[in-house]
Fold this protein.
Amino acid sequence: MHDKYAQGSRTCEKGICAYPLPQIHLCPGADSGILNPLLDTTTHRKIKIGTCAWSYDDWRGIFYPTHLVQNQWLEFYSRYLPAVEVDSTFYHSPAVRSVAHWVQQTPEDFRFCCKMPKQITHELRLRDCEEPLNAFLEALEPLRPKLGSILIQLPPGFVPQRDEKALKHFFTMLPSTFRFAVEFRHADWHLPRIVHFLEDHNLCWAWTDTSKLNEQNRGAFEPLPQTTNFLYIRLLGDIAHKYHAGGGKLFRYGSLMWPRDSSIENWTLKIQKHLDASEHVYLNCSNHFEGYAALTAQRIGRLLGIPIDIPVAAVPVEPQKQLNLL
């Protein structure tokens, strides 16, 4: 590891949008009740609710004005939501120009959570990856004041029987100057020794909801541990029914297609339960969770007493077929 990221002890100016803001009110389909005043202002500030990426073509004319150029989408997005999970960093480390643009286009209190490149997690499988890890961290350096956490999303076939040694060695390489959250995609990692290892190295066990729609009550109550002083939550939905066999998307996202009222209520309760032990909460919603990630963010924010306004749909969205529950 480069000396700059040597292992430690792990115990906008905003750009100007060229288009005027649309009229803002609660998006159709959102809850209409009074905001729940459960949290004070200080607590509000440590909860950052966002979506899993912002560059969705499906959102053109729904969230983004139809003629807004794409390099202004982030600035527009940041007017409504206080955080985002950056999906593009999963495919490659960001260019210096891209990171500078992210910093410039967002307000001071905006937060980014960046996925670690798949070259490290999926291709090298956390082995012999010091060089790409160092390059990734170097690329994120200008983003540090606005960086919430780095997400280490492990592949489903990454299992303790053959990968535990590599996992533990990789964790010892991570510098204490960044926050890291780990998403396990295989149930065999749910072991006390793994929980203790994350605790000892101040790493967050990411809480991910991939429950089926007809099992939505279960997602928030899976016995997932809190291993450090912040929470990282991903509301992804039933990822097994997201794509065609050929890889294409099954749905066009932009409306509340399959509401998960019980799920978001239960996640709200779980967050409230862990707030006192958490300095930060990063919660990111996928389009596939309910059909429109921005609206899910608004709905769960409302239950937490955190008002989130989103633009009114500029173009009607045709009703979609319901997700197959079986």
About this structure: The radius of gyration is 19 Å. The chain has ten helices and eleven strands.
